[in-house]
Design goal:
It contains no helices and eleven strands.
């Protein structure tokens, strides 16, 4: 059973926007940290945005001011609003759950979605 399912990826021109969603299986939404990560071909997995059980958020330096993470716990859904997209944002984006400690490193998360592709053209 897939517990985290991302959607909303696609192709967009530079300067455009996309909103990613991550639907979490009923009754398994994390009460610790949820996060978004991304990985481009040949590059390490990069932390993009994080939110904890109290709703506090944090962002990777490359997306600050452009991306916004949010959650609707009643709908068991995590979101990532991406504005002012750049070609360097092109990557596969992953939703992650059950983050611990700093909640900003990929190895602090225990559940992962299968990813959704975002492609930004110049």
């Amino acid at each position: 059973q897939v517990q985290l399912q991302e959607s909303g990826g696609g192709s967009v021109q530079s300067g455009g926007s996309l909103r990613l969603s991550c639907e979490v299986s009923k009754n398994t939404y994390s009460t610790s940290c949820m996060g978004w990560f991304r990985q481009a071909p040949g590059k390490d997995r990069e932390g993009v945005a994080f939110i904890d059980g109290a709703g506090r958020t944090a962002y990777g330096d490359s997306v600050k001011g452009r991306f916004t993470i949010s959650q609707d716990i009643a709908k068991n859904t995590l979101y990532l609003q991406m504005n002012s997209l750049r070609p360097e944002d092109t990557a596969t984006y992953y939703c992650a759950a059950d983050g611990v400690e700093s909640c900003t490193r990929w190895n602090e998360y225990h559940r992962w979605g299968q990813g959704t592709q975002v492609t930004v053209s110049s």
